[in-house]
What we know:
There is one protein chain. The protein is of the alpha/beta class. The chain is about 30% helix and about 25% strand. The strands form ten sheets. A seven-stranded mixed beta sheet has the order 5-4-17-16-18-19-20, sandwiched between helices. Strands 7-6-8-11-12 form a five-stranded parallel beta sheet, with helices on both faces. Helix 10 links the parallel strand 16 and strand 17 (about 300-305). Helix 17 (about 585-595) runs parallel beside helix 18. The termini are far apart. The site of adenosine monophosphate has 21 residues, from strand 26 and strand 27. Coenzyme A (COA) binds near residues 139, 284, 334 and 363.
Amino acid sequence: xxxxxxxxxxxxxxxxxxxxxxxxxxxxxxxxxxxxxxxxxxxxxxxxxxxxxxxxxxxxxxxxxxxxxxxxxxxxxxxxxxxxxxxxxxxxxxxxxxxxxxxxxxxxxxxxxxxxxxxxxxxxxxxxxxxxxxxxxxxxxxxxxxxxxxxxxxxxxxxxxxxxxxxxxxxxxxxxxxxxxxxxxxxxxxxxxxxxxxxxxxxxxxxxxxxxxxxxxxxxxxxxxxxxxxxxxxxxxxxxxxxxxxxxxxxxxxxxxxxxxxxxxxxxxxxxxxxxxxxxxxxxxxxxxxxxxxxxxxxxxxxxxxxxxxxxxxxxxxxxxxxxxxxxxxxxxxxxxxxxxxxxxxxxxxxxxxxxxxxxxxxxxxxxxxxxxxxxxxxxxxxxxxxxxxxxxxxxxxxxxxxxxxxxxxxxxxxxxxxxxxxxxxxxxxxxxxxxxxxxxxxxxxxxxxxxxxxxxxxxxxxxxxxxxxxxxxxxxxxxxxxxxxxxxxxxxxxxxxxxxxxxxxxxxxxxxxxxxxxxxxxxxxxxxxxxxxxxxxxxxxxxxxxxxxxxxxxxxxxxxxxxxxxxxxxxxxxxxxxxxxxxxxxxxxxxxxxxxxxxxxxxxxxxxxxxxxxxxxxxxx
Length: 622
Ligand code: COA
Ligand code: AMP
């Protein structure tokens, strides 16, 4: 048996023993004696620790004080800054003091609506230090979305900055945050704003306090002891309704799982450099820009830029070269964007990237063509791996650190030790290899996975109710005869656009609010760059011109959900195809948008609607 197989056997034969052993790599205030506790449904219920201590202070105490912990690479501002573990400790402790001075303590929520700057990272770790629960909101969301998260999390403090920088655009945060605060029913007692020189905000009327002034007054705050099951953070993600789901992450299970993943999945050793080119607003950013690499004593890159245009398609490679990145993680969309501009790899360094051992992709399906191209360019293994916000760390992968190097284009690899996958039919029976079914994971989920949804026990339970004893991932796929898992797509109305998780149901909800829209359906259509893009079919009830209505729809989604929803195509149609029981035939609409053969099911009520849409869409050129 190889190391991967041995670890699979050990982790499934005695999960408690396996994870208790892994927990010894974490510094506990009180080491756990219990693994999974079914009664409290939590891992390590008797353990006490502090996640910030494990990410920062313990490395200062254990000989890594002068090692670089964080490299801030910001091609959009031309800045590059490094922080050793000692400097990181000082920054985080003082930021924690600043937050505590606002009356924030253990269990209080802090919303962080900030760009990719070091202060965002300091703030997350500072919350962890004092036991406050952070909730980072992605900068691409519009005020109504931020307001929903404020109302759900009821924060004591909101942290923000004067602006974000999106490629060549400055995005002032002041109007967004001020509007969100006004829209929210919950009154946020305090706002701290970090002024960026690129674009300063006007806080003279006192709507926010100046971060730097408050920081200057603050003394350092120490790490507080927390129960393993105490929440570390809430991260909102798209569910199937318009209301985002607040995934709650614990402290203990998270620290153990993420620390384990660095060595065993990514094969990263302490002191090496890891770069996940994502955003701290997503789970990838939480797990692999902030916590995972720091738990493991690695150096992380915090990158404020894009794969292309900041300034060009070579910036990823230069960043890897400059920082001796050993393992790189990005979304397939980013690689497609680079390839589009540099098919022949002219930006790829002629002498290669010697420090780089592997490239991991996730967030959406990695198409074989992109994987092949990147492997050819880099001469390195390109590994597709699969996970979700709910899980918090990879569940399917090729575990490099366990000596596995099996790969098959189109597959996301094998179950990661700790996860027991089953592909089930709609009745909950296992299907045979090569047959597509519902990808499910046997309970209990390993450490690090979510154990609740903030204030929403009902929806949390739903994910475990369809197939009793299993977690329903919401993804469909199959295991092939060689044991490789293949993820085909969602079984619900969630779509992945440029690696960003969005709900079509939420977009439909926004469209339905528009005067003149009587019915609508949003589907994910294939896109050569972003993997998928949302396309809307809208039935009009008013007198508006089609173009005017389409423009109103695009603008409304942007205002209500945010630029990240990026709906660009609206088809105004006379009717939507429906079954006799009134269900919209979304798969038919998807086929039309994808220019695929369309066959009307025999349950259709109005076949003429398909003909009308087809002729309209095809005459419009897609
Ligand atoms: N703050 C504010 N606005 C944001 C934002 C943020 N953090 N992130 C994205 N947006 C905006 C963009 O500016 C764009 O606005 P626009 O319509 O006014 O141009 C819109 O949201 C859509 O963004 P995106 O889907 O990212 O498209 P893009 O055309 O700006 O960029 C890529 C295309 C391929 C360069 C970009 O999608 C990319 O880097 N993808 C990789 C994503 C990734 O790493 N995901 C990781 C998840 S694991
Ligand atoms: P998120 O919660 O934002 O990480 O999105 C999780 C969803 O993204 C999954 O349920 C999948 O639908 C999709 N996803 C993530 N990684 C992959 C992958 N490697 N292959 C296919 N789909 C993926």
